[in-house]
From TrEMBL:
Belongs to the isochorismatase family. The keyword Aminoacyl-tRNA synthetase does not apply. GO terms for molecular function: hydrolase activity. Pfam families: Isochorismatase (PF00857). It comes from Paenibacillus borealis. Keywords: Hydrolase. InterPro entries: Isochorismatase-like_dom (IPR000868), Isochorismatase-like_hydrls (IPR050272), Isochorismatase-like_sf (IPR036380). Residues 8-182 form the Isochorismatase-like domain. This is Isochorismatase.
Length: 190
C-alpha cells in the first residue's frame, strides 16, 4: 500500500434511501458507487459514509431554501428508515457514518476531526447530488487544503447538464476528476 493510499478516504455522501429514491430511476445507476466502495476496500482505503441527520424537533430557518421548508419532526433524523444508507451500499461495521446538518459534509459534523485523527489528507468524493453535497464538500475541502478526486460517474444530479458542467469545467480547477474505472486503474499502477 502506498503512502498516498494510507492518507486517502472515499466519502460516500447522501446515499440515503429518501435521496436515492428521488434521483435514481434506472437499475444499475448505483453500480459505479458499488464499484468505488469495493475498490476502496480492496486497496485499504477507508470508506466513510456521510448523510443528512437532523436532530429530532429542530426547526430550520425559513431563509434556508433547501431545508427551511421542512417542518420540525420531518423524519430526517439518522434513525428514520428513509435516512438509512441504501441497502445496496451498506457500510461494514467498522465504516463510520458521519451525520451532517446542511449540504456540505463538513457542516455541523465531526468529519474534519475524524479525517485529521486518521491522518487523511486526500478525499475521493462520490454522492448525490453533484450540484449539492459534492459541490459544497469539494469547495469546503479545497479551502481546508485536502487533495481531492471526484468520481464523475459515482455522482448523480437531477440535471445532466449541470452535472456535465460541474465535472467537466468547474471541479477540475480544484480536483482530479476521474471515472471509477480510471481511479481504480490508477490505484493498481501505483
Amino acid at each position: 500500500m502506498t503512502k498516498e493510499q494510507n492518507q486517502s478516504a472515499l466519502l460516500v455522501m447522501d446515499m440515503q434511501n429518501a435521496i436515492v429514491s428521488r434521483y435514481v430511476s434506472e437499475e444499475g445507476a448505483l453500480l459505479p458507487f458499488q464499484t468505488a466502495i469495493m475498490t476502496a476496500r480492496e486497496h485499504g482505503i477507508p470508506v466513510i459514509y456521510v448523510g443528512v441527520a437532523m436532530r429530532e424537533g429542530i426547526q430550520i430557518s425559513p431563509l434556508n431554501k433547501m431545508f427551511g421548508r421542512m417542518p420540525a419532526n420531518s423524519g430526517i433524523t439518522a434513525e428514520h428508515p428513509s435516512m438509512q444508507i441504501h441497502a445496496s451500499l451498506s457500510p461494514l461495521p467498522d465504516e463510520p457514518f458521519v451525520g451532517k446538518y446542511r449540504v456540505s459534509a463538513f457542516s455541523g459534523s465531526d468529519l474534519e476531526n475524524l479525517l485529521r485523527s486518521r491522518g487523511i489528507d486526500r478525499l475521493i468524493l462520490s454522492g448525490i447530488a453533484t450540484s449539492g453535497v459534492v459541490l459544497s464538500t469539494l469547495r469546503e475541502a479545497a479551502d481546508k487544503d485536502y487533495g481531492l478526486t471526484v468520481l464523475s460517474d459515482a455522482c448523480i444530479d437531477s440535471d445532466p447538464e449541470v452535472h456535465r458542467v460541474l465535472t467537466g469545467k468547474v471541479f477540475p480547477a480544484q480536483a482530479d476528476v476521474l471515472t471509477v474505472e480510471d481511479w481504480a486503474n490508477s490505484l493498481t499502477q501505483e
